[in-house]
Write a structure and sequence with these properties.
The chain is mainly alpha-helical. Helices cover 71% and strands 0% of the residues.
């Protein structure tokens, strides 16, 4: 059995994660953990959805 420092293990894991993320970014430009690049169509869709939700909410209250 070989003894390995914990810090060495975490460093290796982070290196692997970084490699995977870089590879995914090469394949898909929009791939970014924690951040999505929304296209304009999607943003407009979200705005419409929010507007409808507000209208429904308004109707419920009055």
């Amino acid at each position: 059995m070989k003894l390995v420092k914990y810090s060495e293990l975490t460093k290796n894991a982070l290196d692997k994660r970084e490699k995977v993320i870089l590879a995914m970014k090469e394949v898909d430009k929009n791939f970014d953990i924690g951040q999505r690049n929304y296209d304009a169509k999607r943003i407009d869709g979200k705005k419409e959805q929010l507007k409808r939700m507000k209208e429904k909410e308004y109707a419920l209250h009055y």
